[in-house]
Design a protein that fits this description.
It is a single chain. The chain contains seven helices and 19 strands. By secondary structure, the chain is of the alpha+beta class. The chain has two domains: 164 residues, Aminotransferase class 4, branched-chain amino acid transferase, N-terminal domain (D-amino Acid Aminotransferase, Chain A, domain 1, 2-Layer Sandwich); 165 residues, D-amino Acid Aminotransferase, Chain A, domain 2 (Alpha-Beta Barrel), CATH 3.20.10. The strands form two sheets. Strands 1, 2, 3, 4, 5, 6, 7, 8, 9 and 19 form a ten-stranded mixed sheet that branches. β11 and β12 form a beta hairpin. The protein is globular and about 60 Å long. The structure holds pyridoxal-5'-phosphate (PLP). The site of pyridoxal-5'-phosphate has 13 residues, from β13 and α5.
């Protein structure tokens, strides 16, 4: 039985910051709307969610988030169509994944109504902040962390769930050059790689910095055991096209089960593109690059939707990918964004009206 929210407490901002925002020149996730949703977990229960003016949070220095890193998040977007109606894309998938992450980090699961009704109420209140300029959207960041106190290394007894919103332009511009990682790992068997846990990102920053110093903009993560199988592209899932087949690694312990990834697999099937979900070895990709059968590689995730890869570095050699007309990457990006922005029929039932 799902708990229904009886009442929301809504405290409106006295003044709006919206007139200070240049909607034509939005960066990604750096300005925030007038309101946020906050819900506390105390004494073993989630309290009634509150929508309040966007503001700093106050925490005790011994809050366990600072010491033991119980912190998870989600990333989604709200889109506005030409008529001015607002939409989400498969939000229940984000809700379910948030609870999968919560469970892995020994955090309390959130009731569906708190997430979904809270999200919709917040978006309705701040709907003027959903940009209508092409390629822009309102980035939605639900997150949960341990607010409970004490230096004892154990799960906290109190948590905060927050949803914050950031009007954003497109995430990446242009094609990226990536480095196939041969030393560091993003995730390990039995670890937390499949959870959207903050610590997974902290662990990625240093190897990514090293790659950046060598002229690459992202790391292609490989398996932690042999560094021989391609797993993710930065904080995105990865697709490889060899001849006409679109291949991606299976979601497992170490790989985040991306919503963009699974949407691409369904669209590819719908378009009659051959797909394979299986391990992809670096040897196979390098061979394919050498013999010309490697047509495309791209990352897939909510922020960029699809991020085409121009070249990859491996053991000191750079391999360029061809420039393709009508690439799978551009076709997938178009199909997905057309659904998101309500420009096309939604035969899969992925759009969700706010
Ligand atoms: C969020 C994320 C993705 C992409 O997931 P989407 O649901 O498509 O946004 C892929 N890999 C990692 C590591 C992620 O954190």
């Amino acid at each position: 039985m799902e708990t229904m929210i009886k009442t929301f407490t809504i405290e409106k901002a006295k003044t709006s910051k919206i007139h200070d925002v240049d909607f034509e020149n939005l960066s990604f996730g750096s300005i925030f709307t007038d309101h946020m949703l906050v819900c506390d977990y105390v004494n073993g229960a989630w309290q009634v969610p509150k929508i309040v003016p966007y503001q700093p949070l106050t925490l005790d220095p011994s809050a366990k988030i600072f010491h033991y890193g119980q912190s998870i998040f989600e990333g989604m977007k709200a889109y506005k169509d030409e008529a001015g109606d607002a939409w989400l894309f498969r939000p229940m998938e984000n809700y379910k994944r948030m609870n999968i992450s919560a469970k892995r980090l020994a955090m309390p699961e959130l009731p569906e109504a708190y997430f979904m009704e809270g999200l919709v109420a917040l978006l309705q209140l701040d709907s003027d902040w959903i940009p209508q300029t092409a390629g822009s959207s309102l980035y939605v960041r639900p997150f949960m962390f341990a607010s409970g106190t004490g230096f004892h290394a154990s799960p906290a007894d109190a948590y905060k769930f927050v949803i914050a919103l950031a009007p954003s332009g497109s995430y990446f511009s242009g094609k990226v050059k990536v480095l196939i990682e041969q030393k560091y790992s993003r995730a390990a068997n039995g670890g937390v790689g499949y959870a959207k846990a903050g610590g997974n990102y902290a662990g990625q920053f240093y190897p990514t910095q090293l790659a950046t110093e060598k002229g690459y903009s992202q790391v292609i993560w490989t398996d932690d055991n042999e560094h021989e199988y391609i797993e993710e592209a930065g904080a995105m899932n990865v697709f490889v096209r060899i001849d006409d087949t679109l291949i991606t690694a299976p979601a497992n312990d170490r790989i985040l089960d991306g919503i963009t990834r699974k949407s691409i697999l369904e669209i590819a099937k719908d378009e009659g593109i051959p797909t394979e979900v299986r391990k992809i070895s670096v040897t196979e990709v390098v061979e394919a690059a050498k013999n010309g059968s490697l047509k495309e590689m791209f990352g897939a995730g909510t922020a960029a939707v699809v991020s085409p890869i121009a070249a990859f570095g491996y053991k000191g050699t750079d391999y360029d990918l061809p420039e393709l007309e009508n690439s799978y990457a551009s076709r997938m990006k178009k199909r997905i964004t057309d659904i998101q922005y309500n420009r096309a029929e939604d035969k899969f039932g992925w759009r969700y009206k706010v």
